[in-house]
């Protein structure tokens, strides 16, 4: 019995499309009503989550779609997962929801166990956690930790603040508010808050009109595919990009406290980096005294065939921080160096310090991933799916080009011939009962759940073939 059948004995066997347009009339009606109090311009359709099941999402018009986008990569186990429903009914969850403790001041007696359940699947080399509210928040909290750590090293970890530092920081001036930088990469996406938007460099819409920190942007490798046929070119590309990073670390006008990078740039086009590139980057951060932050907001929790995507690279030493969110349904960063805890309390702090309700769900997800061996399932199904798509790419070399994600489970993407062709493809896939997402200008990305099976892969490939054959 497959994983999805174990969880979802009543999961649909195929999509159902009842309307001639998507969104359908009822979705359009409810979207219009919602628009009076909420910005509905990005809405695809209005979902009916009660009727959604496993790898299928339903809408209010009665359409049922195979979902390989999964709430922008944030559903780990499928819709209406029974294990998560049981976790939601637990006494711990009731307390977390009703009391919403201010964790920094008044942690509950169950809080240590809640965190331990998450730390059981922490990235290799990490044994501590700081919690946040979203992926962007996790990255901003990591930036704060990096800046405070940089200054603590400079003045001495046990040394207090000078009167000048205290006075000038109240005026947003140095030395109390020093000029420090976070180095990120072109095509990166790290969030839409102020500091995270300053590190983001994927689309102007994410950050235009916002005041920003003037931080450096390096170049992320842009490989030729298939990888095995372009090893020499891609090796040179790694070296070219690492040279740019070193120049920025060496020459930037302000100290670079940390480098943040995604193992696979997701929003920016599903761009992959090699183990050699990432180890080279780790070596450079050590050489120049910058911390390394791995942004696993979208790549984490098993989607690439390891619990954390950067574990494919076997980095030595381990990154300084690893941020997470999405499939974990919670957010924050893992770390291991005790000196990343600020030397005074109330520096890394807010009222709630995260959300224990979401942490309980994260722990339940972690348990299911381990107990049901879902990473092995994702890897097996991903290899199967990639092989099918390789064959399909020979049939449609223009509209299914630069296929990437081999050996990365179901974290697969490809390029269409243009932005218009990509958008038309996504629309036609929905009309054929499959919900797929795009990224960058003309890329298509797959983000199914960890319970996605070979039968789902077959249906997906057949639908892609049908849609492309009609062009």
From TrEMBL:
Gene designation: UGA1
Name of the molecule in the record: 4-aminobutyrate aminotransferase
Keywords of the record: Aminotransferase, Pyridoxal phosphate, Transferase
A Gene Ontology term for the protein's cellular component: mitochondrion
Pfam family, one: Aminotran_3
Subunit structure, interactors included: Homodimer and homotetramer.
Cofactor(s) this protein cannot do without: pyridoxal 5'-phosphate
Cross-referenced Gene3D superfamilies: Aspartate Aminotransferase, domain 1, Type I PLP-dependent aspartate aminotransferase-like (Major domain)
Family: Belongs to the class-III pyridoxal-phosphate-dependent aminotransferase family.
High-level lineage: Eukaryota, Fungi, Dikarya, Ascomycota, Saccharomycotina
InterPro entries linked to this entry: 4NH2But_aminotransferase_euk, Aminotrans_3, Aminotrans_3_PPA_site, PyrdxlP-dep_Trfase, PyrdxlP-dep_Trfase_major, PyrdxlP-dep_Trfase_small
């Amino acid at each position: 019995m497959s994983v999805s059948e174990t969880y979802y004995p009543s999961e649909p066997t195929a999509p159902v499309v009842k309307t001639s347009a998507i969104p359908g009339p009822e979705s359009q009606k409810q979207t219009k009503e919602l628009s009076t109090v909420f910005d509905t311009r990005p809405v695809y359709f209005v979902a009916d989550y009660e009727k959604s099941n496993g790898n299928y999402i339903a809408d209010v018009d009665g359409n049922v779609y195979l979902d390989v986008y999964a709430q922008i990569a944030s559903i780990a186990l499928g819709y209406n997962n029974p294990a998560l429903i049981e976790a939601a009914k637990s006494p711990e969850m009731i307390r977390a929801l009703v009391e919403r403790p201010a964790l920094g001041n008044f942690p509950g007696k169950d809080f240590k166990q809640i965190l331990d359940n998450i730390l059981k699947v922490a990235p290799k080399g990490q044994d501590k956690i700081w919690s946040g509210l979203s992926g962007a928040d996790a990255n901003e909290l990591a930036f704060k930790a990096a800046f405070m750590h940089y200054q603590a090293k400079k003045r001495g970890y046990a040394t207090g603040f000078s009167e000048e530092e205290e006075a000038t920081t109240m005026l947003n001036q140095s030395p109390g508010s020093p000029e420090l930088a976070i180095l990120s990469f072109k095509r990166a996406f790290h969030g839409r808050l102020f500091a995270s938007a300053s590190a983001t460099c994927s689309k102007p819409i994410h950050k235009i009109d916002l005041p920003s920190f003037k931080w450096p942007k390096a170049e992320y490798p842009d490989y030729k595919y298939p990888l095995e046929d372009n090893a020499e070119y891609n090796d040179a590309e790694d070296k070219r990009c690492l040279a740019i990073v070193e120049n920025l670390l060496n020459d930037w006008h302000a100290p670079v406290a940390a480098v943040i990078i995604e193992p696979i740039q997701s929003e920016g086009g599903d761009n992959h980096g090699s183990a050699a590139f990432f180890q080279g980057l780790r070596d450079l951060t050590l050489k120049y005294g910058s911390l390394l932050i791995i942004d696993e907001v979208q790549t984490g929790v098993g989607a690439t065939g390891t619990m954390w995507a950067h574990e494919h690279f076997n980095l030595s030493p381990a990154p300084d921080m690893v941020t997470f969110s999405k499939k974990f349904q919670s957010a924050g960063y893992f770390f291991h160096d005790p000196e990343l805890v600020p030397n005074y309390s109330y520096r890394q702090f807010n009222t709630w310090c995260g959300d224990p309700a979401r942490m309980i769900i994260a722990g339940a997800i972690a348990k299911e991933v381990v107990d049901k061996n879902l990473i092995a399932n994702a890897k097996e199904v991903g290899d199967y799916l990639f092989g099918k798509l390789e064959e399909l790419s020979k049939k449609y070399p223009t509209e299914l080009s630069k296929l990437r994600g081999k050996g990365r489970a179901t974290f697969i993407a490809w390029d269409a011939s243009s932005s218009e062709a990509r958008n038309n493809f996504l629309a036609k896939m929905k009309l054929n009962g499959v919900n797929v997402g795009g990224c960058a200008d003309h890329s298509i990305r797959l983000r199914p759940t960890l319970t996605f099976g070979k039968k789902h892969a077959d249906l997906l490939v057949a639908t892609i073939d049908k849609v492309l054959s009609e062009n």
